[in-house]
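Anyone else keep sequences and structure tokens together like this?

Example one:
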Amino acid sequence: MLRTKIFNEISNIKKIGLKIQKLNEILSQAPNNIKALEELGTIYHYSGQDIEAIDIYEKLKKLEPKNIDIRGFLGYLYYEINNLEKAIDEFNFILDIAPDSPFVSFLLGNAYSRAGLVVDAVNAYEFAIFLDFDMYSAHLDFAKKYEDMGRINRALKEYKAAYEIDVKDKKILEKIKTLEGMK
């Protein structure tokens, strides 16, 4: 579920501003509407407004403190803004409740890696692999998501990570060259 939420395509909403206005109208009448808050937070993230998305997801966390999808998306948002300590806390919270979550283990590995905690990163990645997680596909999914969002540097990093896993994939190499030409 968390993976679906992170890779949800918002780009098909033609008028994002109008959708945000509609959601805010709903929330003015029902400020604790979980569905509207989640949708608004996701739209903010997709629009590159991660701080606003975090504010919403922190509210959601207070409303549903044990909801692992909310906590997972919040951890991912903290990872996006490089608040690795909070990201790691959220991912570990989820793994305490649902230890067999390979995608969360992968995200935790990414956060540990970015924080320079190599041994912890390797342990998290190994556990994700043990749970039969496909890291190659995850990197490609993130790359496509970032590319759709216009975050070319982030997309490039993810394509390069996927290419390091499978150096035989010439399509990825071409994609990397194309994106590097856009910088």
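And example two:
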Amino acid sequence: MTLIDTVPGFRATLGVLATELGVELPAEEMTRRLGPPLEQLLAPYLPAEQIGPAGDRFRELYPDHAVATVPPLPGAHEALAAVRELGGGTVVVTGKYTPNAQRHLDRLALDVDHLEGWVWGVGKAEALRTHGASVYVGDHVHDVEGARAAGVLSVSVLTGGCTREELLDAGTDVVLESLEAFPGWLAEHVLEQRRVALEQRLRELGSVLVAFSGGADSALVLAAAVRVLGRDRVVAATGYSHALPAAERDPARALAEQLGVRVLTPATHELDRVGYRANAGDRCYFCKAELLDTLVPLAAEHGLAAVATGTNADDVRAGFRPGIRAADERGAVTPLADAGLTKAQVRELSRRWGVPTWSKPAAACLSSRVAYGLEITPTRLARVERAEAAVRAVLEGAGVILRDLRVRDLGEAASVEVDAPLARRLAGGETAARVLAAVREAGFHEASIDPRGFRSGSMNERLSQPERYR
């Protein structure tokens, strides 16, 4: 099954079967050739009429003599987890008797979505196609046959009975020493696939206006668009409003200009929208609606085919994202999400391309700092911005390295979120006292440091657990 070391269990069960039948079955030789159906392995040693019953008896003996002793191959759990982490599913397609294969999976807690047993060679192709597999990992030349018949990528590991040369001669696409090498290979393979998909999506658009915040996601969209379409068919647009921290504006413009594209900075007026000022759980809907209602006509004015946002695949799976709905309703395209690129992959691809935002912390708008239900006003946003600037100044003056910071506006009180290890380190110390004093000087009556540290979207916790924050 590629996931487990079947040799000890197979050998033990074969020994019991040989004793019952009163024949000699060369266990060492037979285990070197594991892979084909059991009946094929038994054929040289038994009369034809005994092969079927012997196979049935082997399968009866197997649970008691093999399942408890068979270990997972090194890297098996990690390989399955790697698929899951990248948003994929898993199907085990094996020549093993299905109930016994399921016993192995259950005992070893191997997390798979589907099991197709008792299929062999090209017969595996139907199961692979049925479950939409794109990669088949095996250790035998007949696994390669199944993969090729299904039209999927064949990845072979050298933990079975076949040599590298045999597997390559059979037509496998990739040979790995073991499953331990699979997560790294898979990460690279998927990233390359998604990079190609991103570039193809942009190529299809022909020209694009990128809703450019200066963060890692929109920066990658902009860089990719320039690579694929050229500078003359790409424009960056950053909406300027009270919600955009002033400290974000110059770096965003500088990066866009470094890429050689035109930069537009239209004013957006989120605060003119009642739903935005009300600051209920759907505030982001009104924010994104205002941005797209500004950018869509701007794109048309400049002869650009589409407006692209930096929405990534993680954003789409995150659940409560009203801003994504507003952008979708207005026809915005999402090249990163369309290509399946996650936040981690956005950062890795950006690093490889030399896009400086690859390691930039997430920087949500100032309104995201304000507790739901409190009205969004220019004064409130300015107070948050002053408080964050003051906290950064205190920590930098103390020689503290800070990555993430949010000052959450809870009304007259503020909650300061910094990197979790730093929050624990600051607890009760002199630097913490200076931080809290700086926040009060910025206009808050009370201030505290959240001991749980920075959490992206922590204000949403107040929507799902309102009783905790009363």
